[in-house]
Amino acid sequence: MFVKAIELVSGFTRPIHSIIRYGGQQKIIPGSATLFFVNENGTAITCRHVAELIIASDQINKDYRQQKNTGFDTGHVNYQVQGKPALVKSDPIVQMKNSFVNCFDMISGFNCLIHPLYDLAILQFSGFNKTLYNGYARFVADNSRIRQGKSLCRLGYPFPEFNNFRYNPVEDDIEWTQSGLTNSPSFPIDGIITRLIARNQAAAGIEMSSPGLRGQSGGPLFDTDGIIYGMQSATAHLHLGFDLTDFAVQDGGSIKKVTNSPFLHVGQCVHVDIIKDFLRQHQVVFYET
Question: Is 260 inside any structural domain?
Answer without folding.
Answer: no
